[in-house]
Amino acid sequence: MTVDRNQYSVPCHLANSKATVRLYADRLAICSEQAIVASHPRLLSRDQVSYDWQHYIPLIERKPGALRNGAPFTQRAQVPKCRCC
């Protein structure tokens, strides 16, 4: 989803769909069918990207290589560490 020249991720099943955006001073909420489907901190500069790695779980299930090469996973601080180690 693009808002003010910034990119925000949405769940995979909503890619290329129409959605409503609610802008707040510090965040934005993306709504589909009257329900909030994504929320991100608002990016105040231009040409930035905000990913939520959880939006990509269905894609990773179908294409495991996306985890290695996907842009949302290059920002390792967003992906939680494994609890099994």
TrEMBL record:
Which residue intervals define the domain Transposase for insertion sequence element IS21-like C-terminal in the entry? 2-52
Q: Which InterPro entries match?
A: IstA-like_C (IPR054353)
**Pfam family membership, one:** Mu-transpos_C_2
Q: What protein is this chain from? A: Transposase for insertion sequence element IS21-like C-terminal domain-containing protein
Protein species of origin: Methylomonas lenta
